[in-house]
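in:
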């Protein structure tokens, strides 16, 4: 009853979405199919990145959980990262035009086929690494993740950008 009152008051948010994990075989296959549906002519629905830049940006994100060495933590991340970390892997969709960390911003022009190949290889490496094979080091901004949180956050990141480009 108390939860219902809080929900009605807008203090609790009910989500009908169950966040997928990139460690799930069906989800991995879905992501690869959606990636293969992208073309050099794919147009963004929002944001500034072109299609090849988005794939390069997504590849940079995969380098974090696949890293074999610790990436230094950012000062601002230590202060506030823990407060917003769950938004990376919870069931609520990301808003459009969110700010991007400077090291993940791709400003130069990229080659579609090169970026698609690299992203495909990184997605496959992540999936094959599995829950026990990804980095145990903390995210440079958000801190420590469980393997399950990594699987959900990497799916959610790709899903966000694939929706940005209509797949």
């Amino acid at each position: 009853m108390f939860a219902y009152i809080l929900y009605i008051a807008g203090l609790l948010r009910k989500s009908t979405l169950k966040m997928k994990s990139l460690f799930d075989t069906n989800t991995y296959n879905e992501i690869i199919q959606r990636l293969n549906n992208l073309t050099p002519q794919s147009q963004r629905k929002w944001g500034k990145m072109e299609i090849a830049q988005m794939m390069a940006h997504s590849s940079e994100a995969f380098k974090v959980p696949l890293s074999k060495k610790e990436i230094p933590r950012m000062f601002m991340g230590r202060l506030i990262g823990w407060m917003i970390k769950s938004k990376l892997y919870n069931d609520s969709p990301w808003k459009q035009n969110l700010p991007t960390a400077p090291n993940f911003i791709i400003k130069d022009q990229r080659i579609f086929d090169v970026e698609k190949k690299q992203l495909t290889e990184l997605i496959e490496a992540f999936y094959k690494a599995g829950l026990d094979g990804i980095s145990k080091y903390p995210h440079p901004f958000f801190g420590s993740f469980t393997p399950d949180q990594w699987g959900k956050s990497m799916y959610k990141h790709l899903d966000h950008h694939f929706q940005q480009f209509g797949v």
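note: Residues 17-164 form one domain.
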